[in-house]
Amino acid sequence: MNAAEHFDVIIIGAGLSGIGAGCHLTRNCRGKSFVILEGRNAIGGTWDLFRYPGIRSDSDMFTLGYNFKPWTNKKSIADGPDIRAYIREAAAEHGVDKKIRYGIQVQGAAWDSASATWTVTAKKGSETVTFTANFVLSCTGYYNYENGYTPEFAGRENFKGQVIHPQHWPENLDYAGKRVVVIGSGATAVTLVPAMTDKAAHVTMLQRSPTYVLSVPLIDPMVSSLRSFLPEKAVYSITRARNVAITLGIYKFSRSRPQAMRRFLLGQIRRALGKDYDMKHFSPKYNPWDERLCAVPNGDMFKVIKHGKASVVTDHIDHFTESGIKLKSGQHLAADIIITATGLDVKILGGMQITVDGQPVNVADRMYYKGLMFEGMPNFGMIFGYTNASWTLRADLLAEYMCKLLKLMDKKGVRQVMPVNRDPSVQIAPMLDLASGYVQRAAAKMPRQGNKGPWKLNQNFTIDMMEMRLGKVEDGVLEFSNPAKRNGRAA
């Protein structure tokens, strides 16, 4: 085992959130030393891992981008390679790329009150390595990078073709002239279907139930106009503010007038596919924003369906056959390739084991303070972005807030800070208010939220921005201290 290297802050994960946090530390906490521990061998997280055809964001880049780095590409909805390049540019511009240690698989983190430090234990190949820090920030996302979620399918072993999960896309997969069935109806499925029609003989999206799908412009005409007479920074700020307002407006309208929003969403699909199209394939049983909306740039999915290159089947799988999938209705879908776009396996904190003064901590038993820290857990944060808007909007705010918190600790001369709930009227609720399958499967793994601030996750950028940028850090919930161990326990 190596001699532990010490840093002021350890960031775990070099994806969108981790690189952003490193940039914020560089910009706002210049005196703080930090390291980014990355389990893989590349920057980018999600945007480097997923390599399936058409991989893209379903959020616009003026809000998915960092608040300190304008998005200058002409495309508002960006593909994976462009997002990956953007993250790398941000890292290089702020020198964060030199702070990354690759191939470091974090196993656990142990807090010791006597020294006010975290000891992070990791694997680098077969070697065990350790690092220590005063503050740890987990930017590992919320899913298992090793494996996606695939339900059991009867007869799968009988299928003679290829079965592929999008998380493990084979390099240079040849699907030219092949019949492809994509199982799923979420963002990955609606991305894959139009993207694979360029070469495939036909692509079928097989879904148990429909999802709301919204067509959005690939290139924003307002941005093109503003760029003709304004600098990029101004264009970015204006467009970002507008898009935040639009996204929040759509969400609020969906919640307050779900039937009106449903009519709007189904109406734009009906116009795209024609009045004779069977709308059962795009008519969910739930209300808009009970699950996340899927965005398709320039209605690309509707176009390939209308032109006969793709189709949607709504049914349940009975079993796989040698040549495809037999459905409960009796229909048989012939396939050469089956893609299981069936979702993610949720994994919080990258699966690391946490202890505080020797006692194991399960974050599923803790409330989540302002979407950053855990109840009763010192000097530890986790970045978790919005579910109803771009992830990075909250990630930026949380990283900025962490910098404010670190500066205040230095000013007060304290080594430890942790949120403590002293309000007996706070009622515990699930962290995420979504009916999506991956959320429901992971409910027992997720931390909790409260029914009021600062334990309630607002899912509202405007409110969070006011609270985190303008509000006081010392709110009576954060407990600042210089504890010492007495008789094996923290005093």
Low-confidence runs:
486-491
Rounded Rg: 24 Å
> How many DSSP helices?
12
Q: In which range does the helix fraction lie? A: 25-40%
Describe the biggest sheet? 9 strands, mixed
- Beta-strand content: 15-25%
The shape is globular
Overall strand count: 27
Q: What's the N-to-C terminus distance? A: 31 Å
Instruction: Kindly name the structural category.
Output: alpha/beta
The overall pLDDT, averaged over residues, is 93
What does this structure look like?
The protein has 491 residues and is an alpha/beta fold. It contains twelve helices and 27 strands. The protein has helices at residues 16-28, 46-49, 61-64, 80-93, 187-196, 221-226, 232-256, 258-273, 300-306, 391-412, 437-441, 461-470, and strands spanning 5-12, 34-38, 100-102, 105-112, 117-124, 127-138, 162-164, 179-183, 202-207, 213-216, 294-297, 310-314, 317-321, 324-327, 332-334, 337-340, 353-356, 359-361, 368-369, 373-374, 380-382, 416-419, 428-430, 448-450, 478-481, 485-486, 489-490. Helix 1 links the parallel strand 1 and strand 2. The chain starts with a strand and ends with a strand.
Describe how the helices and strands are arranged.
Blueprint: E1 5-12, H1 16-28, E2 34-38, H2 46-49, H3 61-64, H4 80-93, E3 100-102, E4 105-112, E5 117-124, E6 127-138, E7 162-164, E8 179-183, H5 187-196, E9 202-207, E10 213-216, H6 221-226, H7 232-256, H8 258-273, E11 294-297, H9 300-306, E12 310-314, E13 317-321, E14 324-327, E15 332-334, E16 337-340, E17 353-356, E18 359-361, E19 368-369, E20 373-374, E21 380-382, H10 391-412, E22 416-419, E23 428-430, H11 437-441, E24 448-450, H12 461-470, E25 478-481, E26 485-486, E27 489-490
Parallel strand pairs: 1-2, 1-6, 2-3, 4-17, 6-21, 7-16, 8-9, 8-16, 9-12, 10-11
Antiparallel strand pairs: 4-5, 5-6, 13-14, 14-15, 17-18, 19-20, 22-25, 23-24, 26-27
